[in-house]
Amino acid sequence: MSWLKDLRDKQYVDWHYDxxxxxxxxxxxxxxxxxxxxxYLRELVAIRAKSLGSDTKSLATRKFLLIGVCGLxxxxxxxxxx
Length: 82
Fold this sequence. Notes:
The protein is mainly α. The protein has one domain. Helix content is 63%, strand content 10%. It has 4 helices and 2 strands, in the order αβαβαα. The model has no long low-confidence stretch (mean pLDDT 76).
């Protein structure tokens, strides 16, 4: 999973994982968006929302946020396969 490590190194995602505690090590890590990931998705939403009307902006923002997260993970997965 080097694509996930790459996203962590570039601070797009963050993880909560305690490698020093044996019990915590046996549980999966919890991942969340980090600062650069949030900035990237906000940029993506802002660019795409400009082309939409004002009544649909809030709905579009939510959709593009989800699309952006999926796209970010999909691109990272494609990098890993290469």
